[in-house]
Structures are given as structure tokens and as C-alpha cells.
């Protein structure tokens, strides 16, 4: 049975807490997830040729950063994002995040997504902010 | 007489669905309110019965009902796809895929009861590539999303099929 959530959600990207370690300039977070975690959404995106929506990759970055920081985070903005290769059923996504402090209590995240075959899938630069208690 | 016959620049939901390849739960656009050349206004109504609210704990304050930002952007992207289709920027058997974003800002949260209005403008088009800009506001004038640049590339649907195992 699904766990009740504090906020609306699209999908659960994380099977377990992501690995994180302090590095120069912030915290490095790494995540691996099978694309099939987004299977319910891929049914409609698209029928007959399922592709993991790029917005779910974006939400995976948000979820991984929130898990590493230990609080709910929302997107404040996206500086730049490039989606270079589609993520298809059977693919495994490898995500590497560098989380660093930003202005006004926000956090900046630079993320690189690669497929299990080592090819780049996306690069993202986003700003996140803490979600006020509902 | 159906409204869209009086106003050929408008699309009802059946016409929107005929032009988009997304299907539930990822079909996130309802109507086109206006379209002219390289501009479009499309709508999406948010309701409390949507799947994203299924597991929300009770009781929940209204802040918990903020519409997921990923879905808000996907809905905006589908408005971009519709403009791609209506402006006949590529063949009908191709699918415009989002390949780039620049300088996107989220504003006030969108909530159940809001009707999102996506305002999209074509900035540049060359071959299979298009760049668009725009924003999303609610019916009562709150800006929930601004997008300086969203790039799409059109790909033949057949080229996106998963390889056979």
C-alpha cells in the first residue's frame, strides 16, 4: 500500500536513500534507478513507444536532493537543462548531483544523467528551495 | 453549434487529443483558447481528483495541494507541441521532444480549481528544431511559470521505438 505523502507527487524515483558524501564545493549525491520506476507515466508517454518524460528526470533530481538534504524541496528555477538522449524501458539511469548553497537559503544543484551504457542523457542546473510546512 | 466551428483558432479537447500523442496519465492539456501564427494560448484545468493527490495524507492544508512542478512543465511543453503542430512546423508523423530549457522560473503554486493558461510564442524555427518562449498564469492572474527558452527537436515516431530484446 502506498505511503501517505505530505505533498502532491508524480512518482517515487528513489528505492532507497541516495549515497552522498561531502566534496569540495558541496555535497556529491549519486543515484541509480531503473527507468521502469516511471512505468505508470510512460504508459501515456507515449503509447507504443514509451519514453521517460524529461520532466520526471527533473523531478528525480529534486527528490534526490531533498533526500540528501533531509527536507522537502521545490524547484525555484532551472538555469539550464539539456536532454541529449531519450531514456527507454530497460535503461538504468545514473545520476550524479553536486549540491551547493545558494542565495536566500536556497540550494543549487548541478546534475549529470547517464545511461547504463555510459552515454550522456541529460545535464541540468537547477535551484531548489525548502517547502514550507503544509 | 460547437464553439470551435465559430472560432477556427480554438480547439476543444477532442481536437487537442487528436493532435497530441500523450495519453492519460500524461495527457495534461485540455483546450486551445486561441492560436494565431506563432502564438498560442492553451488551457489545463487542475482538479483535486487527479492522480497526483491520490496518496496525500489527511488532513492536509492547502499548501500540500500545490500542483507538481514537473507536471506543470510537462503541460506547458504539451502546449509547445500543439503550437508546433498547428503552425505546421514539421511532418505529422514526427514527435517534438524537449531537448533544452534555459532560464525557467516557478512562481506562485497552482492549486486544484485553477485553470492554467499557457501562453506560448515561437521564437525561432529551422528544420527539425524550434525554440519557444512563454509563461503560464492562472485564471485570476497569478503567474506560476515563466520560460525564457524551451527547445524542441522533431523526431520520427518510428525512430523512438525501443530496440527488440
TrEMBL record, chain B:
At the top level, the lineage of the source is Bacteria
Protein name in UniProt: Beta-hydroxyacyl-ACP dehydratase
Amino acid at each position: 500500500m502506498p505511503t501517505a505523502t505530505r505533498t502532491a507527487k508524480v512518482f517515487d524515483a528513489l528505492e532507497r536513500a541516495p549515497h552522498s558524501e561531502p566534496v569540495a564545493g558541496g555535497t556529491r549525491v549519486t543515484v541509480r534507478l531503473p527507468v521502469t520506476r516511471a512505468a505508470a507515466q510512460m504508459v501515456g508517454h507515449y503509447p507504443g513507444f514509451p519514453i521517460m518524460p524529461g520532466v520526471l528526470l527533473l523531478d528525480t533530481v529534486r527528490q534526490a536532493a531533498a533526500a540528501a538534504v533531509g527536507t522537502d524541496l521545490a524547484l525555484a528555477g532551472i538555469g539550464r537543462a539539456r536532454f541529449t538522449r531519450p531514456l527507454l524501458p530497460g535503461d538504468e539511469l545514473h545520476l550524479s548531483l553536486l549540491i551547493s548553497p545558494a542565495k536566500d537559503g536556497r540550494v543549487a544543484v548541478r546534475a549529470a544523467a547517464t545511461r547504463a551504457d555510459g552515454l550522456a542523457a541529460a545535464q541540468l542546473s537547477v535551484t531548489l528551495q525548502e517547502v514550507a510546512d503544509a | 453549434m460547437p464553439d470551435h466551428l465559430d472560432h477556427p483558432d480554438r480547439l476543444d479537447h477532442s481536437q487537442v487529443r487528436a493532435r497530441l500523442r500523450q495519453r492519460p496519465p500524461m495527457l495534461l492539456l485540455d483546450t486551445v483558447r486561441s492560436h494565431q501564427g506563432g502564438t498560442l494560448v492553451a488551457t489545463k484545468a487542475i482538479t483535486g481528483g487527479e492522480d497526483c493527490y491520490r496518496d496525500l495524507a489527511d488532513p492536509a492544508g492547502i499548501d500540500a495541494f500545490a500542483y507538481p512542478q514537473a507536471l506543470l512543465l510537462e503541460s506547458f511543453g504539451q502546449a509547445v507541441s500543439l503550437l508546433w503542430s498547428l503552425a505546421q512546423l514539421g511532418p505529422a508523423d514526427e514527435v517534438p521532444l524537449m531537448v533544452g530549457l534555459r532560464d525557467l522560473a516557478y512562481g506562485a503554486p497552482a492549486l486544484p480549481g485553477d485553470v492554467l493558461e499557457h501562453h506560448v510564442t515561437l521564437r525561432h524555427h529551422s528544420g527539425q528544431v524550434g525554440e519557444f518562449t512563454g509563461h503560464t498564469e492562472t485564471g485570476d492572474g497569478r503567474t506560476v511559470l515563466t520560460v525564457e527558452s524551451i527547445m524542441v527537436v522533431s523526431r520520427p515516431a518510428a525512430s523512438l521505438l525501443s530496440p527488440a530484446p
